[in-house]
Design goal:
The chain is α+β, with helices and mostly antiparallel strands. The protein has 2 domains: 123 residues, no CATH class; 129 residues, Up-down Bundle (Four Helix Bundle (Hemerythrin (Met), subunit A)). 49% of the residues lie in helices and 21% in strands. It contains 3 helices and 8 strands. α2 packs antiparallel against α3. The longest helix has 71 residues. The chain starts with a strand and ends with a strand. The mean pLDDT is 82.
Length: 291
């Protein structure tokens, strides 16, 4: 095993956004190769160390072999420059990628997968729809019940009007029949009695006609109320269907959201030379041995 010199940069990066409800601090530890070229350290070539600072050893094993240290890594001023470059690189590259639901405006949590976010949206959407459905039922139920009661009472009125109309028609028919019968029985003279009976018969016929019209009006009232009920139930169904047809979160196209840290929220803790263990094969090729 050979220990190769690398530049280790450790920092804490905070990403905060009150609107998205995000406030997360992450430890970022990177390892970058060092060379004596024109660009001694290129943080774009760095990779995550995959370890914590507490995992580093302060002394190597007795049998350790060490690679050559580039001359630039022996100068103290180099580390001040690399520290500054590391902070700039963090500002350019570090971000928190989230998902946003266009329909609900909800934003995923840091580290939450797209699938988990969609499942959470589905659950919250179902709860919201249930709540809205309850609201619709509370809105329409009293109106529907009131119309149904009016229809019931209007139907009873129709029955009463029909009964009164039948009674008036029967009485009118009897009165007219009695007048005609009297005429056939030989009451040829015009008497006050005959005139009174005829007048009564005519009045009875008039009442029968009026009662018949009252029945028609009562039936028209029932029809109008039934149409109002049908319209109200149709409106309720339309609003209920609109809730059911709301965007389905499992198929909704999510919007990507990237939150970046401010410079003030980037704290570089350490930039130092670190000796990282490598395996060396028979061809002299090195592979990292710490991951």
């Amino acid at each position: 095993m050979i220990y190769q010199p690398m530049l280790l940069g450790a920092s804490q990066v905070r990403v905060s956004d009150s609107k998205a409800g995000v406030d997360v601090t992450q430890d970022v530890i990177m390892l970058a190769p060092i060379s004596d070229g024109a660009v001694a350290v290129d943080w774009d070539q760095a990779r995550e160390a995959g370890l914590a600072l507490a995992d580093l050893e302060s002394a190597p094993s007795d049998s350790a072999q060490f690679g050559a240290v580039p001359s630039v890594a022996s100068k103290a001023k180099s580390y001040a420059l690399w520290n500054k470059d590391f902070a700039g690189w963090l500002f350019r590259t570090q971000k928190v990628d989230l998902f946003k639901s266009p329909s609900t405006k909800d934003v995923s949590k840091p580290g939450e997968s797209e699938r988990d976010f969609r499942v959470r949206l589905q659950q919250s959407g179902r709860e919201a729809r249930d709540k809205q459905s309850d609201g619709l039922r509370h809105k329409y139920a009293p109106k529907i019940a009131a119309l149904q009661d009016r229809i019931r009472r209007a139907g009873q009125m129709v029955e009463r009007q029909q009964a009164e109309s039948r009674s008036s028609q029967m009485q009118a028919a009897i009165s007219v029949g009695a007048s005609i019968l009297g005429a056939f029985l030989g009451r040829k003279t015009v008497s006050a009695t005959n005139i009174g009976r005829a007048t009564t018969a005519i009045r009875g016929a008039g009442r029968a006609i009026k009662e018949s019209k009252d029945v028609e009006q009562a039936e028209e009232n029932v029809s109008a109320l039934q149409q109002q009920l049908a319209d109200l139930e149709s409106q309720f169904k339309t609003e209920t269907d609109a809730l059911a047809a709301a965007t389905y979160p499992l198929n909704e196209k999510l919007e990507p959201v990237s939150l970046k840290p401010t410079k003030a929220n980037i704290a570089v803790k350490l930039v130092t030379l670190a000796w990282m263990p490598h395996w060396q094969d028979s061809g002299g090729r090195l592979t990292s041995a710490w991951q």
